[in-house]
From TrEMBL, chains A, B:
NCBIfam families: PRK06446.1 (NF005034). GO terms for cellular component: cytosol. It comes from Bellilinea caldifistulae. The keyword Isomerase does not apply. This is Peptidase M20.
Length: 455, 455
C-alpha cells in the first residue's frame, strides 16, 4: 500500500475516536464575547497537542491565552496551522434542536456550538497528524500550531502577540483556521479575507426611562436618536456614507474576475437555504453577486436594543439605546481609518451624543493565487474530493490573516471540513462526518507532499 | 367635631391597616401585557369591594374580567370610580432597589409595581369609603366602581363592555383612576387625556440569522429595513410624516391657554428629575412646553429588538427586527385613522415588508373646565392641601375616558395620591404615605359634598 492509502485507512478506522475527542472539546463552552470557559479550553487544547508530542506553550495575553505547539519533522520546512478555540455566543438558545454544548450526532452530522467554527478544524488536523505519526513514525515536515481564544471578538490581542513572538513563530506556509466545500461538495480555496471594524453605538438621553405620556413630545428619546444616527450611515440603496469610506477600496483585478467567472452559481442555493426573496440592489447572481459578497465593504447592523422588548405593550420612553454594527473591509481599508471616519461622520451629522465603543477589528489581506504552495494545496485535493479546489479570490468573512501575511511573510491557504449548511454563528451549528474525514485526508496529503518537495 | 374632622381622624388612625391592604394587593402580580395574575387579582378586588357592602360582579370579557361594585347612599346621585387592577411589566428588573412584587416601605414611601398606577388609588378610595361608613353609618351618595384589567395595554375590551352595560353603569359624575400633586405638592386637576395608538412594527428578511461575513453585502437585513422604515415616520425636527396626521389636531383654545398660563414652571423639575440636558425643539419651558407635552400628538419608539444584544460582539445579520411604537393622539385624532395612515405611509415609502401589529389604542377626550362638578372637586381640595387644585386642560397620558364621556355622558375629574416622583411605568414605582392620606381625605370630602348638594 502507498503512504496515502495507509493513512486513509488509518483515518477511516479511527474516525469514531477523533469524533469523541472533538465532542469532549465542544462540551467545554469557550465563548469569548462572554468570557466563558476560556482558560479551561486553552488548557484542554494544550493537553491535546502535548499528547501528540508537541512542545507547547500556554501564553498569557491581555485577553485570552494563546496556545502554541511545535513538532519537528523530516523536512526542515514548517507548516503553521492557525486555529482558534473560542466560539460564538450560543444565543438564541430556543432555536437549537439539541443543547449547544451537548454535542449530538444526527443524520451523519455532529451538532454543537463551535463544532465547525473552529473546534472541528483543529481536531481534524490533529487527527491527520495522528495518522501520519502512526503510519510514518514521524511528521513529513515541521508543524507549528497557533491556537488563539479571541477570534470571535476580532482577535484584539493577536497583533501584539504575533509581533512579539514573530521570531519563535517562523514558518514557510500557513493553513488557515477554516476551509471546506461549497454547495456542490467541491472543495474551495479562499485566497483572502475581508477586514472588520466592529462597534457598539450607544445613546443615553436621560437618567431613567420615562412614561411615554409624559415625555413623548418634550424629552429626547434614545431610541429615536439611535435610529436617526444609524439611518445616516447607510441608505436603502446600500451606499455607506462615511467620509472617504470607499477611497481605498481596490476593485477586483483581471485575474480576480477570471477566478470569479470560474465559480459556480450560488444564487439559488442562497435563496433556498436562507429563504431570501431577493438579493440587495436587484442582483440576481453571477460575477456581480460574487464580487459584491466578498470584494465590497459592508455596514451591517448586527443587533438593536432599546426600551421594552417583552410581549404586548409598554408605554415607555427609553433613556438608553444601542446597536451593534460591523463593517467588513476590503484592501486597502483599515479598521482604524473607518473608526475615525465613523466619529467624524456622526459628529458632522449632529450625533455627538452617539457614543462609539470599538469591539474589535482586523485589516483585510490576500494571498497571491499563483503562489506554489497554493498550487500544491489546490491540486492535492483532487485525490480526496475527485477534483482540485475551486479558487476564490476573497472570502466574505474576516480573520487576522493580515498579521501572518505581513509579519510572518507566509502564504495562507484554506483547507478544512466546513460545508455551506454548517450554521456557523447561528443555532444548530454542525459538521458533516464525511467531510470531516475528507478534510483530515487532505491535510495529511498536504503535509506529506510539502515534506517531499525540494526546499 | 365636624363630619370632616371625625373622618380625618379615622383616616389618620387607620393608615397602617389601609397600607397593609394595599401591600397585599401589590404582592399579587397583574401584568396585563404578559397575562400574568389577572384573574387572581380580579377576584381579590371583588372581595375588597364586597367587604365594604358593595354589590359586586366579576364580568368576563374577551380579555381580562371587569369588576364592578355598587352601594347606594343617602343622596340618589351616583359617583362612578374608574380604576384598573392591571399593572405595567416590571422590567428592567435589575434597576429595582427592592423586588417589584414585594412591597417595601422606605423613607415614607411604599415601593412596588402598580402601587401608584393604579392599585394605590383604588385602595385609597376604599379607605375613604371605610371612613365615611364608620363615621356616618352610610355613604353620602351612591357609589359605583368599574375596575378593569387591561388599562396598561390600551383597554381593548372596555369599549364593548361599556356599550353593552351602559344601562347598568349610570352615574352623574366620574372620578378618574389617577390624580395627585405636582412638583410643588399642589394638587392638580387634569381635564382631558390624550389618545393612544400602540403598534409593533416587525420585519422578517430571511428564515434564519446569517453570518454577517456571508450576507452583509448581498442579503437584506431586517434591522436595516426597520431603521429605514422608522426613520421615515418622524424626522429629527420632531415632525411626524404620516399622511394627514395633523389634519384633525385642534389647537388649544383661549381658555386652555389661560389655564396653561396659570400653571407653574416644571422645566427645572424635569431637568433635575430625569437628567434631561435639553428639551426637544429647543423648548425651554413656559406655555410652549405645557402645550407641547399634552396637546400635541407624538410618535414614540418604546422599544427596539433585533439580532445579538449580549455582551461583546457577534457578527450576525439579523433575520428579524421589531419596534414598539406609540402614538399619543389629541382631539379629534382617532387610533383607527392613525393606523390607516401608518399602513399607507409605509407602503408609499416602499416598506410593504414592515408588518404592523395593533396592540391597543384609545381616542382622546376632554371635560369642560367650567362644569360644576369640576368646581366642587377643585375647591374641596383646599381644606386638605391648603389650596384649591390647579387646573390642567389636558394630561399627556392616555386612558379610556372618552368611553365614559361619550357613552355614559359624565364629566370626569382626577383626584388621587400620585406625585411626580412616583416612577409610574418605570423601576422603583412608589407612593408617598403623606399623599396617600391626603388623597383619601379629599375623596371623602368629594363624596360628602356631592351628597349634600341639591340634585
Amino acid at each position: 500500500m502507498t503512504h496515502t492509502s495507509r493513512i486513509d485507512h488509518y483515518l477511516e478506522d479511527h474516525l469514531d475516536q477523533s469524533i469523541s475527542e472533538l465532542s469532549r472539546l465542544c462540551e467545554q463552552p469557550s465563548v469569548s464575547a462572554q468570557n466563558w470557559g476560556i482558560e479551561e479550553t486553552a488548557r484542554m487544547v494544550e493537553k491535546m497537542l502535548k499528547k501528540r508530542g508537541f512542545e507547547t506553550q500556554n501564553i498569557p495575553t491581555d485577553g485570552a491565552p494563546v496556545v502554541t505547539g511545535f513538532r519537528a519533522g523530516k523536512s526542515p520546512r514548517t507548516i503553521l496551522f492557525y486555529n482558534h478555540y473560542d466560539v460564538q455566543p450560543p444565543e438564541p438558545l430556543e432555536l437549537w434542536e439539541s443543547p449547544p454544548f451537548q454535542p449530538t450526532l444526527r443524520d451523519g452530522k455532529l451538532f454543537a456550538r463551535g463544532v465547525s467554527d473552529d473546534k472541528g478544524h483543529l481536531v481534524s488536523r490533529l487527527f491527520a497528524i495522528d495518522a501520519l505519526l502512526a503510519e510514518l513514525g514521524e511528521l513529513p515536515c515541521n508543524v507549528r500550531f497557533v491556537v488563539e481564544g479571541e477570534e470571535e471578538v476580532g482577535s484584539p490581542n493577536l497583533k501584539p502577540f504575533i509581533e512579539k513572538h514573530a521570531g519563535d513563530l517562523s514558518a514557510d506556509a500557513c493553513i488557515w483556521e477554516f476551509g471546506g466545500v461549497d454547495h456542490r461538495d467541491v472543495p474551495v480555496q479562499y485566497l483572502g479575507l475581508r477586514g472588520l471594524c466592529y462597534v457598539e453605538l450607544s445613546v443615553e438621553t436621560a437618567n431613567q426611562d420615562v412614561h411615554s405620556g409624559l415625555g413623548g413630545s418634550i424629552f429626547p428619546n434614545a431610541a429615536w436618536r439611535l435610529v436617526w444616527a444609524l439611518n445616516t450611515l447607510k441608505s436603502p440603496d446600500e451606499i455607506i456614507h462615511l467620509p472617504g469610506f470607499y477611497d481605498k477600496v481596490r476593485p477586483p483585478s483581471k485575474r480576480d474576475l477570471e477566478l470569479f467567472e470560474l465559480m459556480p452559481e450560488t444564487a439559488d442555493e442562497y435563496r433556498g437555504r436562507y429563504g431570501i426573496k431577493q438579493f440587495l440592489k436587484s442582483m440576481t447572481g453571477g460575477v456581480e453577486l460574487r464580487v459584491a459578497e466578498s470584494m465590497m465593504p459592508t455596514c451591517t447592523i448586527c443587533g438593536l436594543t432599546s426600551g421594552y422588548q417583552g410581549p404586548g405593550s409598554k408605554t415607555v420612553l427609553p433613556a438608553r439605546a444601542s446597536a451593534k454594527v460591523d463593517f467588513r473591509l476590503v484592501p486597502d481599508q483599515t479598521p482604524e481609518e473607518v473608526l475615525e471616519q465613523l466619529r467624524q461622520h456622526l459628529d458632522s451629522h449632529g450625533f455627538q451624543d452617539v457614543q462609539i465603543t470599538y469591539l474589535g477589528g482586523e485589516a483585510p489581506a490576500r494571498t497571491d493565487p499563483d503562489h506554489p504552495f497554493v498550487k500544491l494545496v489546490v491540486e492535492s485535493a483532487a485525490e480526496v474530493y475527485g477534483q482540485p479546489m475551486q479558487m476564490i479570490p476573497m472570502s466574505g468573512g474576516s480573520g487576522p490573516n493580515h498579521l501572518f501575511i505581513e509579519t510572518l511573510h507566509v502564504p495562507i491557504v484554506t483547507a478544512g471540513i466546513g460545508h455551506p449548511g454548517s450554521q456557523a454563528h447561528a443555532p444548530n451549528e454542525n459538521i458533516r462526518l464525511d467531510l470531516y474525514l475528507k478534510g483530515a485526508k487532505h491535510i495529511a496529503r498536504i503535509l506529506l507532499l510539502y515534506g517531499q518537495e525540494k526546499v
